[in-house]
Amino acid sequence: MNNEQRMLVSLLPEGADGALIISSENKRYFCSFPSEDGFLLITRERAYLLVDFRYTEDAAAKSDGCEVVAFESLMESLGGIIDRDGLHKIMLECSAFTISVARPIEKLLALYGAEADTTGELDKVIEKLRIVKTTAEVEKIMKAQRITEQALSETLPYVKEGVTERELELELEYRMKKLGAEDVSFDLIVITGAKTSMPHGVPGDNKVRPGDFITFDIGALYEGYHSDMTRTYAYGQITEKQKRVYEVVKTAQQLGLDAVRSGVRCCDVDAAARTYIYHAGFEGCFGHSTGHGVGLEIHEAPAVSAKNEGTLQSGMVITVEPGIYLPGEFGVRIEDTVVVTPEGCVDLAVLPKELIVL
Asked: By CB atoms within 10 Å of each CB, which of 230, 276, 312, 326 scores lowest?
């Protein structure tokens, strides 16, 4: 067993014999192999990665701390392990199991006199482990960030009047993968003009025009870990109103960054950015949370929101991304990913945040 598996076992409640994991992200976290199919069963003594013929060779070469079990029938192989190891209570990763999968497992366990724990407690244990990143995890997130920034820097010269959002999005994706990314972290958001008032606008055939803001909300995936960054640029001559809104968001983002440190409540980080935006006259124009955790998933705990009174811990990786959105006009968002420290945070982004007119 590896260290992550031992840590999981140490946090299992008394009476639980093991944990059954299905999500590819958690398989990657606990055994370094993110298969879409099959199960990872971690007991108090050993770990089993159950995969079919398609993944057997790759799993044997890449997985860590577990015995690779090739199955023809997943349920039969799982039942054989439960019977042989005398397991009586298995905790399920409830957030990843559908009812159509969980019910047959419950019936299977019952055949061997065992029970499934579907209370969601395993999900809480896993979140507790994953929410604070190791040095190795931070290094992968940082590499993803560097790929993202270099790809954006190489794409900006392509921003010309008449180029479409979709063309810029495809150029970014191509450059990220050429620089070593496994994939993009999410459907890249590259939007221009009035569409920038949509926080999750979808790139289309809209063309860059003078006077536009252009939002790049982008990220790369590197060895399973995500980056997340937003920059807003201007193209050609812009208005004083656009300049003012940009400066309000820039200041709010810095206030949010300044509030980050171990022991601070997530809601207080959100308030630091949100209060400034509201006091500047833009109440109601910032409708999403100030940030979120980043790691094996692009959105994970903790939520840096007005409702989350949980505290930040050293080693957490979060975003700080306030924005102002004026429907039918334009929007501005600035986002960095940072690592929480006892004294503050380490900003993984290095691209400038001053207003740049392309």
From this structure: 326
Query: What confidence tens digit (pLDDT) does each residue in 4-41 have?
Result: 999 999 999 999 999 999 999 999 999 999 988 899 99
In the CATH scheme, what architecture does the domain 135-347 have? Alpha-Beta Complex (3.90)
CB 137 within 8 A of CB 295: yes
Question: What does DSSP assign to residue 38?
Answer: S
- Does the domain spanning 3-130 belong to CATH 3.40.50.1370? no
Cβ(294)–Cβ(320) below 8 Å: no
Number of H helices, E strands in the chain: 10, 19
Q: Could you give the 3-state DSSP secondary structure of residue 162?
A: coil
Other beta carbons less than 10 A from residue 175's beta carbon: 20
Query: Domain limits of the chain?
Result: 3-130, 135-347
Q: Let me know if the fold of 3-130 is the same as that of 135-347.
A: no
Query: pTM (2 decimals)?
Result: 0.94
- 212-226 pLDDT tens trace: 999 999 999 999 999
